[in-house]
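Field reference: sequence -> structure
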Amino acid sequence: MSSDKEFLLLPNSPIESPENKLSLRGLHRISSASTIKSVYIESHSNSPCSSVGQKNELQLIKEAQMKRLNKPVNLNILFLGDSNIGKTSLINAMLLKYFGIMNSKLEKPNNLRPTRTVIESNGSISSNELELRVMLIDTPGYGFFSTKEKWLETMRELIIGKALDYKKIKKQVPKNILEDNRVHVALFFIEGPRCKETDLDLMYNLQKYISIIPILAKADSYSKNELVQVKVTIISQCAEAGISFYDTSSAMGNKVIELSSSPLGPVPPFAIISGGDAIEKNGKTNFVRKYTWGQCDIHDKNCSDFRILCRLLFGHLVIPILDTAKFLNKKNLKSLKNNEKKIKSHNEFNKNANRFRRISNFAARFIFNML
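Structure field:
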């Protein structure tokens, strides 16, 4: 189990308050599997806020849309996929780049262990009076579970459980201070060069609960030309399997051309490389993977789609993602309620049937004894 001591503040990070340190807030059991005695949510809260002076740098939400909501906006992102595929590395890179937080285990990359718990890391991006509160939810890979069905059920319980919690809290907390902890979107990691059958099966079953954005992991395994082909293959496979990813094109509107601006081919899927070593240069810390021929920087658009992914997630796509998530969460809760009614009705029917059976048996014995 990770602890809050695993995180430290970078000395050069713009921090609003020295008291605003990372702390461990909650520990909640959500499910279990035979290969994992129990899965917990470990919540790192009160993350330092990065004060962003130039809104264009982050493509932050349009001011009018933010003010329309009249409160800080919550965006909660779930990281899903197989084990040892780079989910935690991407979260660490986002934490460092946008929230000034660094996992101290990255100082010694060999100590970075696979995630076996559900860990929530919270931070906020501020610009003038606008604030975007982000929760990055790291999850165990399905490889740690005895069956993919147990992993799927655990993720389903996590998504629906948060929606149920929000529904309860919503009735008790004033709307202007209500924190939305529901899951809004999932990044599903695919290793390539093709989707595994397990990936296809899990994404197909998950899409009814959450919007999915595909991530092509370990992108440094391919050349630029190969990446384009791998992306096409993944999209084709998923379409044939009946998987509908989050409609990024429609959400982008007249800025849809940005989806074709990556040197590594159209997005999504977003090609991402694992972080590797944390290197400080000119007062900035970046994640770099070293090779015999040189190195790849996760922030370099010629090596990774990291920059465009973050620019879209924390900018253009925020409001569309939240709108879609609101619809899906309501649909999920309605479906859950209907299922509960069916189960209750079925149990009531069985109860009445058993009662009738007992009465019939008693009547039959009574009549037999009378003869």
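Note: Residues 1-40, 45-60, 104-110 have pLDDT under 50 and may be disordered.
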